[in-house]
Amino acid sequence: MRLSLRFIVPLGLALAAIAYAVVPLVDRLTLQWFVRDLEIRAATIANAAQEPLATLVREPRAKSKVSGYLNRLVTDERIFAIGFCDPAGKLAYATATFPPALACPRSEGERRGRLEQLAEGPLHVSANPIAADGEVLGDLVIVHDMSFVQRRSDDTKKYVVWLFAAIAAVVALITVIIAEISWRGWVAGIKRIISGEALLGTRESLKVTAPELRPIARDLQALVRDLEAERHARDESQVTWGPETLRGVLRDDLKGDEVLIVSNREPYIHVRRKDKVIEIQRPASGLVTALEPVMRACSGTWIAHGAGSADRDTVDERDHVMVPPEKPAYRIRRVWLSKEEEQGYYYGFANEGLWPLCHIAHTRPVFRAQDWEHYKAVNRRFADVVVGEARTEDPIILVQDYHFALLPRMVREQLPRATIIAFWHIPWPNPEAFGILPWREEVLEGMLGSSILGFHTQFHCNNFFDTVDRFLEARVDRETFTISHGGDPTEVRRYPISIEWPPAALATQPPVAECRRALRERLGLPADAVLGVGVDRLDYTKGILERFMAVERLLEVEPRWVGKFSFVQAAAPSRSSIDEYQNLDARVRALAERINGRFGFAGYQPIVLRIEHHDAAQVYEMYRAAEFCCVSSLHDGMNLVAKEFVAARDDLQGVLILSQFTGAARELVEALAVNPYDIEQSAAAMHLALTMPPAEQRARMRSMRGLVQDFNVYRWAGRMLLDAARMRNRRRVLSRARAARREAGAA
Ligand code: G6P
C-alpha cells in the first residue's frame, strides 16, 4: 500500500495542479465563445430588425409603435433590454428594463460588444446601426443578460474538476497495477541475486534474472569478484603463509572439512634393505616435496600407490600408515597394484604416453591400447578407494598429476557434492601436440570432472582452454576461466607451485663454509675448487646432456677454468625400466666420461656424476657448497630445484642459471635465463656466474629469496583451498535459496 501511495500521491498532486491551471483557462475560453455568440446573435437581431424598425421610426406616432416592437423583441429570455439611440446619441426608445446607467454609443469602439458589470448584474452590450435609403436612423442597443454565462462557467468548472478526478483515478489504478506486478518481479529477481543464483558469474546465471535487473546482477557479480580478489590479495599479501595460516584456512574457511590427497607417488616409501632392515625413503619428486609439508599442516589422508618393498609390512589392516615417522601428523592409504597394472598404467600410459606428450622434449610418446586399459582400471581403483576413505559426502579431494586424469570424473559420479581440485604438475601442450593422443576426449572429459583444475602457468591454462575448445563440445568462458561440459563448471586457474618456507632441510645445515669444505672433501676435490651443481631425476626433460655440453664448451672457450672448475651432477635414477630412460642413463654416463677424458687429469674431473638417490640433507649441502646451480630443463611445469637452491642460500651468494622453458623462469627473473638448446649461451652463463661480483649475487639472491618466501607452498595450497571454500560457500547459498524457493512453492 505504501508503494501505491508513493505513486498515487504525486500523481494526484500533479493532476490537481494541472486542473487548477486549466479551470480559469477554460473559464476564459467559454466566456469568449459566449461573447462571440452573443455578438453574432445581436447582429442577427439587428439585421432582422433593420427594416421594420426603419419603417416604424419614420412613421407618425412612432413612439408607441417602436416601443411596442422593442418590447416584443425583448421577450427572448436572454435579451435583458433593448434601446434605440437617435443619430444625436440620445436614447430615443427603450424597454423598461434598459439600465439607466447605460449611455448611447458615441464611437465605433463603443458600438462593438462589451461587457458591463452593473447593478442589474453582468450584461453584454452591443450597438448596431439602423439605416434606410442611405440615411442612418440611429443605433439599436441590445443588452444581453450574462448571468447564464456565470452559471455555465460554474458548471464547466465542476465538469473539468470531475474529469480530472476521473482521469486521476483511472491512471492511478493502472499505475498501481503495473507497479505492483513489476515490483513483484523485481523483488523475486533481487531475492535471486541475493541468494547468489545470479552471482555465480556465468552467463546462464544472469539469464535467470529479470532483464531490468541484469545490470545490477552484473555489477554485483563484478563487485563480488572484486571483493573476493581483494580478499585473496589481502590474504596473500598481508599474511605470511605458513603451516599455521594453512591450518587457519582449513579451520575457518573450510570449517574443518575433510581433505584427501591422491597421487601416484607416496611421500614415504618403506624399503627392505639387503640386511632385511626396513628403511624409509623420501622419493625424488617435486610433487612430494611440495605436498608433504601441506599435508603435515592439514592432516587428512594421502592415497598413493604402495610401491616400496616393505610397504605391505608397515600398514595396518586398512592399509593405513601414519607419517612422518618421527612425528605422525597424517596418514597414507596405500593402494596395491599388480606388476602388470603398474607396467601398463604407470610406466606405459603415464610415463611413455602422457609424460612425453606434455613435455616438448622431442621424445616420441608411445600409446598402447593395453596400457590405456590398465590406466582406466587403475584410475577406477583409486577412485573407489577415495570414495571408501571419504567420511562425508562432500570432502575436498586434491587429485595430483597426469597419473589420474580420469579420476575426477569417476569420483564425481559417486560423490557429486565433493570439491575436487585437480592439479597438473607438468606442462599442458598446445592442441596440435595433444591431439595425437588416441583417447584425447576421454582424458579431457575425465579432467573436467574437477571443480578446480590447476596449472603452474597461465600459458598452460590457455593451452588447456584451446585444447578443450578444439576437441570437446564444451562452453569455454575465458572471462571467468570456466569450462562447462555437462554438470558443474570447472574453474581453470593458475597456481604456481612452490616449496615450504623455511625448508625443513635447512634447519640442520651447518654454515655455508662448512658445507663447502665438507662437499669438496667428500668428492675428493681441492678445497679451492669452484663448483657448479645440478640436481635432477635422471630424466630426458631435464636437459642434463645439454648442460654437460655447456660445461665442455665453457672449458673450450675459457680454458682458465680447466683444473679449477667442476660440475657436480646428482641424478636420481628414475623410471629405469623404460627404454628412453635407460638410453639416457647410458648417454649421460658416456658424455660425462668423454668430457672428463678430454679435460680431466689425475685428481681432476670436470664432471662429477653421481647417479644415485640423495637425501634432502645431501642435496641442501650441495646447493650451499656451489658457486652456481644449473637448471637446464628442456621443458618443465615449474621445477622446484630452482626454488630449493634459492631457499638454501641464506648467505645470499650463489647464482641460479635457469632454463627459460621452466615455469620457475616466470617468477625467478633475477636468475640467468638460458635457452638450454643454445650451448654457447649456457656456457657463457656459466662463465658469467663464476665471475659475478658478490654484491650482484647478493642483490639477485635477496630478491629471489623474497619471492620464494612470500610465494611458498602454503600459499599455493592456501589459494586453492580458499577457492574451494568460496565455491562450497556459493553452493551452500544456492542450495539454501533453492530450498527456500521449494518451500515457498509448496506454500
Ligand atoms: C614429476 C611428476 C611427479 C612425479 C615426479 C617423480 O615431478 O610431476 O608426479 O612424482 O616427477 O616421478 P616418479 O615417476 O618417480 O614419481
| Largest sheet descriptor | 10 strands, mixed
Please state the CA-atom Rg, rounded to the nearest Å: 50 Å
Uncertain parts: none
- List the quaternary state of the chains: single chain
Labels describing this entry:
747 residues, alpha/beta, ten-stranded mixed β-sheet, six-stranded parallel β-sheet, 23 strands, binds 6-O-phosphono-alpha-D-glucopyranose
Summarize the helices and strands and which ones pair or pack.
Elements: H1 2-58, H2 62-73, E1 79-85, E2 91-94, H3 108-111, E3 114-118, E4 121-132, E5 135-145, H4 147-195, H5 203-207, H6 214-238, H7 243-253, E6 259-262, E7 269-272, E8 278-281, H8 286-298, E9 301-305, E10 320-323, E11 330-335, H9 339-358, H10 369-389, E12 396-400, H11 407-414, E13 419-423, H12 431-434, H13 440-447, E14 452-455, H14 458-471, E15 475-477, E16 482-484, E17 490-494, H15 504-507, H16 512-522, E18 530-537, H17 544-557, E19 565-572, H18 579-599, E20 607-611, H19 616-625, E21 628-631, H20 640-648, E22 655-659, E23 672-674, H21 679-691, H22 694-710, H23 713-746
Parallel strand pairs: 6-9, 6-12, 9-11, 12-13, 13-14, 14-17, 18-19, 18-21, 19-20, 21-22, 22-23
Antiparallel strand pairs: 1-2, 1-5, 3-4, 4-5, 7-8, 10-11, 15-16, 16-17
Helix pairs in contact: 1-2, 1-4, 7-8, 7-23, 9-10, 10-11, 16-19, 17-18, 17-21, 19-20
6-O-phosphono-alpha-D-glucopyranose (G6P) binds at residues 265, 283, 285-287, 401, 425-426, 537, 574-575.
